[in-house]
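Re-running the complex after MR caught last week's input typo. The corrected sequence lines follow. Everything else is unchanged.
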Amino acid sequence: MADASVYSALVTNIVKSQFDVIGPLAIDQAKMVNGITIDTSNTATIRGNGKEVLANLVKQFEQLFGQTSVEVCKDAIKESGTPVSDNDLPEILQ
Amino acid sequence: MPTSPVFVGSSEPNELTRVNEEMYKQNLELAIRNKTLNVLHIVSTITINATGAIEVSQKIADAIVTELKFASVFIALSDTSGKELRFTAVAQAAGSNDVYEPLLHPSDNRTIALTDRGNLMTDAILDRERKISGNFLDVATPLVTQEAADKIENATHTEMIITYPLFLGPKTLGALTLGLAKKIDDLSRGEKETLDELIGAVSIAINRAQLIEDIKSANDKLTTANNQLELMDKLKDEFVSVASHELRTPMTAIKSYTWMVLNGKAGSLEPKATEYLNRVYISTERLIHLINEMLDVSRIESGRVTIKKTPLEMAKLLLDVQKELRGRATECSISLTVEEVGSIPVVQADSERIHQVLENLVGNSLKFTPKGGSITMGVRKTDGFLETHVTDTGRGIGAEQIPLLFKKFGRLEHSLVAMPENSTGLGLFICKQYVELHGGTIRVQSEPDKGSTFTFTLPISQP
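Corrected-run output:
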């Protein structure tokens, strides 16, 4: 599994992409996910199992906004350019 | 950023979830559009501010890397003949610029021939469609080796390249190549949409910059040509001035000695000799008149004319000119009169120059008014100006010839035939210049066979 910094970068990028769509609500929703901390510059840090935290974040958005928000998360991963293999991504993002 | 009326924790989850999803989709559309517009705005700003095609291409390449996070961007532009491509801009998210040197400054100054297939950019241009490759050499051939292309790929972490042809109508501008650190399928929807619109904006930006360069180049050439013309004009003025001075001295001597011989200072003359010498005398006068006018023009055009303003009573000047030219008018059986002048103010003017203007206008009327005709001078006060006119019952001037009147050598066709002597085509040009140097204007109203009225103004409130 990729290290925590990779997952932190992916979460940061997902929150940023969601912010572009729904505004500050994206940060509020991300903060509700266990294991995610977001600082004042909207940079995320994660604790625990990165793959699981990432999956929970995507599900948090999916629960409210449906499959479209999952696609935004997938695009955020693509645009981030962060090197991560498919195996390191949760199933919902594959 | 779009706003989102999101409902959280509702008592009717299904309906609210559907509304949330719908609103989210709409917001997503807006967000993508916003991103696209942001990039287009940046390109638009570059388009407005940059003036050269190379500068524009570099700024656009930098903006694409910064805003769209592509690994690298390469822009190659067609030369003016539309036969060759040259790389003009490279931008990359990471790595050193050194690896691009062979692209930007290829050995032997090599270029990519637009007619040769085998290069991804020329293929894209010839087929008018985007091309994709996994090998950077495909866009860099024949400028670099596979080894150099690999270096560029590694330096920029490029996995795939997409090349878009840049066109504007039938005009080939060049090609834009994007280096991706991911596969083409990994482009997001937003990135794809932005790219679709970006290519057109880039084409417009580059075309505009090239047009500005073309205009600037043409302007520079015109400026150079203009400078040369000004120099030549100055040389011509100097030549005319010097030549005229050199001519006037001997001509004055010829005129003086001819006058002396004609007046019996060298003994009596045979009638035939008197007739011939009279012709010499008249011709000499004409030449001196021409030389004087050419000297006037030379002084005017070189800015050497100074206007010495003193109080001038225009009514008195009209009477002076009438007195001077009455003899010539009587010889031609033309009446020369001055209208009764009421109370008019004194103007500040160079009396010698204005005298010359008036004398010239009356002289012209004398030339073109047939026997039995009349010439009338008058002056009146208008709003802030004194308006002086010379009206004759002469042959008049056609509307098509009026624009020529105040130009240098603007002598009218019939004037040569009708009255060849003392007509240089410079008199009215000089009048116009002198009047304008006083802050006045000169104009003419005329119709063929109905006479002419020349009017010039002089400002009253002159210090």
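None of the earlier attempt is carried over here. The radius of gyration of chain A is 12 Å. Helices of chain A lie at 4-22, 25-31, 50-65, 67-80.
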